[in-house]
Amino acid sequence: MLRVDAGIIRRAQGGDTASFDVIVDQCYAMVYNIAYRLLGDSDWACDATQEAFVRAFNGLPNFRRDASFTTWLYRIATNVSLDQLRRRRRWLAEQSLTPDAEEEGPAPDPPDGQPGPNGRAETAERREIVHAALRRLSDDHRTIIVLFDLQGLSYEEVSEVLGVPLGTVKSRLNRARLSLKQQLAPHLELFET
Q: What CATH number is attached to the domain comprising 66?
């Protein structure tokens, strides 16, 4: 897990905006990745990332050092993303659309170097299938898979971010993985190597 220097955090808590800018620079990718994986849309993820940093800045004076700063920031990013997901669903319902009817572009390709056009196309197709499967999971299942499997948090860190007991994390993760596996079953041939 990413670690932010305690001195920078103390200076930011004291009102030093340049120190908070350093925190944003160090943690932006982490917060954006959580938001993108929970929301499945780059524009929504940018909005959630910005809102998460605004909330973090406003809440920084109240940050207690009994938890790690990044765990605290993960929790803020997760809550902001889930709040935005709920708002998005309400908006879609008001527009008489379902989430499956919404048109979304493919996930952005990270720079990957070597594969040719066919390899990139297969990778993009697999990525889109996984993102679509993640979007069909419940919020609880999607969140736990994003935090544990995609962001690499430990069981204990996920427990702290979500505010649930360790046993709940383990059982929820198991159920989430089974649910994701069921979602991906029709596309199994794409994931065999």
A: 1.10.1740.10
